[in-house]
Amino acid sequence: MRILLWHVHGSWTTSFVHCGHTCLVPVNESRDADGRGRARTFPWPDNAVEVTPRQLRETDVDLVVLQRPLELELTRQWLGRRPGTDVPAVYVEHDTPRGPTAATRHPLADRSDIPVVHVTPFNDAFWDCGSAPTTVIEHGVVDPGHQCTAELPRAAAVINEPVRRHRITGADLLAPLSAPSPVDVYGMGTGQLPGWLGLGPQRVRARDDVPQAAMHEQLARRRVYVHPFRWTSLGLALVEAMHLGMPVVALAATEAVEAVPPAAGVVSTRVDVLADAVRSYTRDPDLALRSGREARRAARERYGLERFLDSWDRLIKEVVR
User: Fold this and answer.
1) Fewer Cβ atoms within 10 Å of its own Cβ: the N or the C terminal residue of the chain?
2) Under a CB-based contact definition with an 8 Å cutoff, are residues 225 and 248 in contact?
3) Sheet-wide strand order for 265-268
C-alpha cells in the first residue's frame, strides 16, 4: 500500500514508517515544514520514500495520513485529489486543544469522511470532534534498549523552545525542580533558558548542542527524567526515557498520570513533592535504577512498537476498502 504522509513529528513518524507499507514523504528544495523529506537524524527504513509535489501528480496513493489542517489543501494541490472524497484519509491529532479546553472544536469536527486518530485517550476526551468518527492509537516507539547507568547525579529533561512556550512546557517549574539537583535540558531553543530563569549552569544547563543521535546516551547517564509540562498530549521523549530505563518525575497533567505507574516514578500536582522526588532519585542511584527498570517494563508493555503498528494496520484496512 502507498501512504502519503508529511514528516511533521520526528519521533512519531519514525515509528510509523516501520509499518512496512510504502510511505511517500514530501520533500522540497528548502526542506521546510511542508517538505522535510526523510529524517536526517533518525534511522528510517527504505520503504520511506521521498517524493516531490510535482511527482505526486503522477503517483498512485492509497491513503493520506493528515496531521495539520493545511494538509487538506496541500493534498488537493499536490495530489489533485480531495482527501476523504477522492482518496481515503485519516487525520492524526498529536496535540491538545489550544483554545478553551472544554469548548474547542476540532478542525475536522462533524466530518464523516475522515476519521480522527488521537494519540492519547486524553486528547480524545478533551477535543470536541462532534459527530466525526474518532479512535485512539497510543504512541509506540522504536525501543532504544535499556541504557540507563544513573552514573551522573543529575536530572534530565527534553523541552523544545522552552522560553517561547514557557508555561505550556512548564519551563518555569525548572527553577524549583533544579533546587535539589542540577537539571540538564535538551532540545531546540534551550540556549536562552538559564538566563530566562535567572539561574546559572550549576542549576539548569542548556544542552541544545547535543545531536539527536547522541541524546539517548546522554539522557541515560542521568538518574531521573523530569517532565514539567502543563499542557501537552504526551511528550514522546518521556516514553523514550522510560524505555531507556529512567524513572520519571512528572507534573500530574494530561496523559502523564496514565503513562507513569507508581513504581516507575512520581507524578503529582505538588511541586514540592516533585522536588523531593528529584532529590531522592539523584541521591540514590540504586533507587533510580530500580524505578527505572519498572519504567522500562511499563513502557514496553503499553508503548511498544509492535502494538502501535498492529493498531495502525487494522485501521488502515478499515479505511482503505
Assistant:
1) C
2) yes
3) 204-207, 183-186, 152-158, 222-227, 248-251, 265-268
Question: How many other C-beta atoms can be found within 10 angstroms of the C-beta atom of residue 272?
Answer: 9
Stretch among 2-16, 18-32, 154-168, 197-211 having the lowest mean pLDDT: 197-211
Euclidean distance between CA atoms 249 and 253, whole angstroms:
12
Model pLDDT, residue 297: 98
Query: pLDDT-based confidence at 212, cuts 50/70/90?
Result: confident
| pTM, full prediction | 0.94
Q: For residue 303, what is its C-alpha cell?
A: 508503548
Q: What is the pLDDT of residues 136-174, one digit of tens each?
A: 999 999 999 999 999 999 999 999 999 999 899 999 999
Q: Which candidate, 160, 201, 148, 173, places its Cα nearest to that of 273?
A: 173
Strand ranges, E, within 43-159: 48-51, 63-66, 89-93, 116-118, 134-136, 152-158
Residues whose CB falls within 8 Å of the CB of residue 55, separated by 6 or more in sequence, listed in order: none
The pLDDT assigned to 213 comes to 78
The structural domains of the chain, ordered by start, are 2-141+304-319 (3.40.50.2000), 152-302 (3.40.50.2000)
Torsion angles phi and psi, residue 304, rounded to 5:
-75, 150
DSSP conformation class of 172: G
> Residue 239 is which amino acid?
V
Cα–Cα nearest to 91, from 315, 317, 321, 266: 315
What DSSP string describes 228-246? --SS-S--HHHHHHHHHT-
Give the pLDDT confidence of 61-76 residue by residue, as tens digits.
999 999 999 999 999 9
CB 281 within 8 A of CB 247: yes
